[in-house]
Design a protein that fits this description.
Length: 87
C-alpha cells in the first residue's frame, strides 16, 4: 500500500534531487529549500505536461539525429539540454 505524498515529504524529495537557491538583499546567491508555493503547486497538479529530460550538459552536444545542439535550453526531440553559453 502506498502512502499519500505529503507537503513535507515532497519538499524533502525536491531538496535532495535539485540544487535550490535564493538571492540575498545584495543579489548574491545562497542555498535554499524549495519554495512552499512550488511544493504546493506540484501537489495540486501532480501530472503536469513536462517533457522528460535525459541529460543536461555544459557543452554543445550531438542530438540523436546528428545535429549539433549549441543553443541553451531543452532539445525536445531527444530530451537533451545544454546550459552552456554561446562563445
Amino acid at each position: 500500500m502506498t502512502e499519500p505524498l505529503t507537503e513535507a515529504a515532497l519538499k524533502l524529495h525536491l531538496a535532495q534531487k535539485a540544487d535550490w537557491f535564493s538571492r540575498t538583499d545584495k543579489g548574491d546567491q545562497k542555498p535554499a529549500y524549495p519554495p512552499k508555493e512550488c511544493v504546493q503547486a506540484m501537489l495540486a497538479f501532480p501530472d503536469p505536461p513536462v517533457p522528460t529530460v535525459h541529460r543536461i550538459t555544459a557543452v554543445p552536444l550531438m542530438a540523436r539525429d546528428a545535429t549539433l545542439i549549441q543553443t541553451r535550453g531543452l532539445h525536445r526531440p531527444d530530451g537533451s539540454g545544454t546550459n552552456q553559453t554561446a562563445p
